[in-house]
Design brief:
heterodimer; A: alpha/beta; eight-stranded mixed β-sheet; 38% helix; B: 478 residues; alpha+beta; three-stranded antiparallel β-sheet; elongated
Amino acid sequence: MEDLSKLSLIEQINGLKARKFSSLELTEFYLKKIDQEKALNSFISLNENALKEAKKSDEKIAKNKNSSLEGIPIAHKDIFCIKDQITTCGSKMLENFVSPYSSTVYEKLSNSGTVNLGKTNMDEFAMGSSNETSFFGSVLNPIDPQRVPGGSSGGSASAVAANLCSFATGTDTGGSIRQPAAFCGITGIKPTYGRVSRWGMIAFASSLDQGGIFAKNALDAALALENIAGFDEKDSTSINKKVPSFLNEAKSKDKEHIVGIPKDIIEDIKDDKVKNNFYESLEILKKSGVKVKEIDLKNIQYSLPVYYVIAPAECSANLSRYDGVRYGHRCENPKDLEDLYERSRAEGFGEEVKKRILIGTYCLSAGYYDAYYIKAQKIRNLIKQSFINAFKEVSSIMMPTCANVSFKLNSIQNPVEMYEQDIYTIPANLAGLPAISIPSGKIKKLPLGIQFIGNYLEEGNLFNLSNKFQQNSNFHNE
Amino acid sequence: MNDTWESVIGLEVHVQLSTESKIFSNAPTKFGQTQNSQASLVDLGLPGVLPVLNEKTIEMAIKFGCAINANISSKAIFARKNYFYPDLPKGYQISQLDDPIVGEGKISIEVDNEEKFIGITRAHLEEDAGKSLHDKYENLSAIDLNRAGTPLLEIVSEPDLRSAKEAVAYLKKIHSIITFLEISDGNMSQGSMRCDANVSIRKYGEMEFGNRTELKNINSFRFVEKAINYEIDRQIEIVENGGSIDQETRLYDANKNETRSMRSKEHANDYRYFPDPDLIPVIISRETIQEIQKTLPELPEQKISRFIKDYKISEYESKNLNVSKEISSFFEKVAKKISSPELAAKWILGDLMAILNKNNSEIQDSKISSEDMIDLLSRLEEGSLSGPGAKKILELCWSSNESVDVLVKKEGFDELKGEDELLEIITKIIKDNSKQFEQYLNGKDKLFGFFVGQVMKETKGNADPKLVNELLNKKLKQ
């Protein structure tokens, strides 16, 4: 039998429709492979009902009652609540938390006919850029198991890269989809803020968090995103706009692209290999008829400090609910209420989470609020405005996804150095813009990614541009 | 009253808005249900849940704002107020800080026949917390989250009140406004209206305020007066003995009629307010406000004037009938059905109120319905029932739970004495009271009433007063 796991999502859909293989066969194949690749630690838990779900899909396919992604086995980042399944968010705090409800993202993909293989590993509460902060241990990069897969959605990225599923869900607050996609040599999309419902997606920083997709290529990612996007009345920040067929937009031949190059940022790239890769990638685009224009993104250099005020501030409140009172970790024999709070949280949260809660609490404190939080919000608005101005002239903006390739496990000890991982990805989160990372080459076998940032709700444009790139290169198949 | 010390009081009134569902979830808000049966996923503060604003609360807040001629904000922003408490599931309360929905306004109160205007600083929307139950289990506290997420309108007054009496008048005024607007049931015993008081003292003539204490947990009109008076006396005593007042929060204990320290300023919380990123600012247009303004029901002041004009009752009566919406509408129902509205005012404010007060009951829980009152007063008007008879029936109506119609028959009030029978009685009375009869004949006309009374007494009220008059006239002048 052929290696079904090497097939793309679209190839799998066609194979299932043509009855070349069944969903049950595909699911069994993946479960076996997941077991073989256990050492990667991509999954926190597996779905006991995966085979049952696959059989159901096969019945539907037999009756020609299949939905758009019928019978496709996928994986969910363990940040998406699934009814009656453990949802840990990579934390000891929620080690045994069985969710009584399902997230909108899960519901949508379930209604589309997907088979849930399991929940993927992640940095604790999505705070990290290497997947090393997970309570369930680090995830290994399938390209080089001594290296990290990136984070926070490291489990989903490594699962797709290791062919443990054809696509997976992820979330991106400051780069948590795009950076691991780049490190693992796959395609990752963070849509416009509000495009994908946050209902049931455990919050880290509410104004920045956005669900998205990891896939093998832009067309697969387009089809998958189409199935999770859309207005949700349960999320007040969800955008009430019709979702177009991203797949059709990706394939469209009518789209013209003017790609903006933020010259200052590109010139400042420290690693020459990364800079060269950027210009080589640009050449590929130019050859496919894409126009290029230099742009100036003012204030974007402040993105990192702005992010590290706003994200911790929001997380400090979002994580207050984990108090040991109603669910989650509770310390043994608390002597009083104070003790219950202090020990439950001290024991349940890891170091990185505690650090960010402290930073956030500090930034919001009386006397500091104006100097940090208010100022950060003002700069955030300026950054947003810079993008709005830029999009008057260009249809998308191109940047590297990351300043470096994947690094070795435990090699970054300095937190600021770790935070700098997200230097190119954070601006899109601050502005709420859609952004995609696609593979663009390698440095000594280790993948690099380039990033396209699009205008609001223009995911289709990003898929189209990425597809053009992938039609003229083969990095995504290497 | 103290000649040296002036008390300065400001009130924070929490009004529970009578919406069907909670302010940020679709759980019902009914009072007195099984513990935790009305707490949804959102009210429980589960991971991944999101608030969605109940728009009804905005409308209700605007109604209140219009009723007190306050500025309505064109933009209402919800903020997170952070603190830990077991009955606060998220670890923060969604409230408002900047841009409260209702801005400055004022309301008039009347104390000792003098009108005074009290400034309203602001009124904002927020969610209520749950309840901690400390006496249900030994060594354990229980949490009931039914109330968590119930919409509250917090109305903050300027420190314009100068006595406990004024505070009570103010509170009663707020109560009448919210009940006339039908935005709350105003039921203080069920916690639908709760009050905190900021109390300080200063010497008459001084401009600066003294240190204030905040009194919590005062939940009836009676307790408000007692608590404030206790606190004023306590402060005067301390200051007169050379001490000073600590700025602190004090709890009122109704059983002991005292206030005691809860927490001092040093232990005051830093609530770290910041705009809730899960909720978008609510934009309120001029048109919306105008639309709502149009739907405003008649308010107490308008009703007072109209009653005087339409029903020809005194100002005193009209004011007293309009202390609550229930009394007011009870009166109108009755007044419209009988020919003398004055009679309705007299009986409702007199006998009915006396019965209600005696039984510690409110008119909305009255066993005497407006239909009973109409029936009773109609019989009185047509002369088929006497005053004392009506009074007796009213009392029976309360104690027996039977309708006026049934009671009149049961008590034999419908079997009025016939003309012959009455004549016989009159003859007997004249005979028994020959002295008075003589005086009457000698010109003491006033004695006519005496004879009427005697006849009514003899017939136990079962006589048509008109007929009695007629017959007496005839007999006495024979």
